[in-house]
Fold this protein.
Amino acid sequence: MSKWTATKIKGMKGQQKISCLTAYDYTMARLVDQAGIQLILVGDSLAMTMLGYATTLPVTMEEMLHHTRAVVRGVREALVVADMPFMSYHVSPSQAVKNAGLFIKSAGADAVKVDGGAFRVPTIRALVRNGIPVLGHIGLTPQSIRSMGGYKVQGRKPDDALRLIEDAVALEKAGVFAIVLECLPKALGKDITKAVGVPTIGIGAGAGCDGQILVIHDMLGLQVEEAPKLTFVKRYANLGATTSQALKKYRREVEKGIFPANVHSF
Ligand code: KIV
């Protein structure tokens, strides 16, 4: 297989469902890429999963660039999308172009993701005009968590649903190659998918989307504390518990002199 491009991902609409995951470091990116996942997002969710912050808001450009470089080193085929952090593209289109340029030029990402609906069109146009592929993101947008008042399903009211459809159409016209739909009723996920000619990538937006994305820590059960139950997440493994058991076994074996055995010694 050859390298996935934004154009190829765009062309998958109606042909094949698109599988996407987040990854934040070399090892995980290598494994995700080897599994044939088509799109890897270096999500700003790394603020929580990798850096221990309570929200995505504090993560910086430097931190995102650092993780993006590690992911890029692990990937041969998947499209690597860097998530632009809070306040790295909000001030002006020129600020967005400058920072997105760093993800492409200095970190080696293939594309960037920005949150926001129709109001974000001037920024998206500026990025696309400058040769930077953009993944849109509407619905629940965690960078606006302060104004949204919490992690809630969006678009339940008819007016809100209509606005989200208009947002998606505006993003398509501005030139995005795909749109993430987060936390929407499944009927709305399907309606938006029908309304646009670019692929929709759902996270908690139902099976009617053109593709799906999950946060890798959630789907692998890689939590350090009991995490809030996210009903849209399917847990494919329980690596947190497996890791914890292995670590405790190692500690016991060191304490009892079981490890290292002769085979682990010179
Ligand atoms: O940062 C992230 O992981 C994301 C996904 C939830 C789409 O934006």
